[in-house]
Design a protein that fits this description.
The protein is an alpha+beta fold. The chain is 31% helix and 38% strand. It has a 10-stranded antiparallel sheet. Helix 1 crosses helix 2 and helix 2 packs antiparallel against helix 4. The two termini are 23 Å apart.
Length: 242
């Protein structure tokens, strides 16, 4: 999920710069301009982000109670592959309840089944998220060609690029950019897993490093029907030592 920071530089050039070049604060860039800017700068964005390493903290909560938390050192390898190295050790699992009675063994199996279901669900969620973050240049072009991209002012000083049916029918994605500061503010997605009833949302908030490099500071994934929330925070950025 850390690779969704690639969106920032692309949108910076593809939306805010083009809007400024148009010489008006009232007329947003056209969909053609947005798509052209995204395609042009995607490769450059990825190159810049490979110069850093950072700490990724992931917390998973169920029914408002945090169930797991892990930290990983994240960086791009020499071959361009995103690498994540676990930090520290995972907390010890609680001791199992006595299983001398049949009821105890049944309860243990139920707990294990729930753990397996949770793991499978989170794997499906992670795969879905990566279809949106970073957004595919091909899907952006497709949305534009099919008339499913709209660009308009969101609020004073901010422009919003809105997409519908971006990855699958009935979903939506919106990207907000602060025109004055030339920074990406947020990326939000409303979508679903297997069927529309299994709705999930994604909210990404961005930060900026001292040299102007922007990154995804906090990502929140929510599946309200299952009372699951996943929060990913990226901190401690520093130049990567090769």
């Amino acid at each position: 999920m850390t690779t969704h920071r690639l969106v920032l530089t692309s949108l910076l050039a593809g939306i805010t710069t083009l809007w400024s070049a148009a010489g008006t604060a009232q007329t947003p860039p056209s969909p053609d301009q947005v798509v052209a800017g995204l395609k042009q700068n995607l490769a450059e964005s990825q190159k810049r982000l490979r110069q850093y390493e950072w700490i990724e903290t992931t917390a998973i909560s169920l029914k408002g109670e945090e169930k797991s938390r892990k930290q990983q050192r994240v960086y791009y390898g020499a071959d361009g592959t995103l690498t994540k190295v676990p930090m520290g050790s995972a907390p010890a699992a609680p001791p199992p309840e006595p299983a001398g009675r049949r009821g105890g063994r049944v309860k243990e199996r139920v707990v294990e089944n729930k753990k397996d279901e949770m793991k499978e669900y989170m794997e499906q969620a992670a795969a879905l998220i990566h279809k949106y973050v970073p957004p595919s240049a091909a899907l952006i072009q497709k949305a534009k060609d099919e008339g499913k991209l709209q660009v308009a002012p969101a609020q004073p000083g901010t422009v919003r690029a809105s997409f519908r049916d971006f990855v699958q029918a009935g979903d939506s994605m919106a990207i907000d950019v602060d025109v004055k500061a030339l920074l990406l503010n947020a990326l939000t997605v409303a979508t679903y897993l297997d069927k529309p009833e299994d709705a999930v949302t994604l909210d990404v908030r961005f930060g900026t490093l001292a040299d102007g490099t922007s990154y995804s500071a906090k990502t929140t994934f929510e599946a309200k029907a299952k009372n699951i929330q996943v929060v990913i925070e990226n901190t401690g950025h520093r130049p990567l030592a090769r």
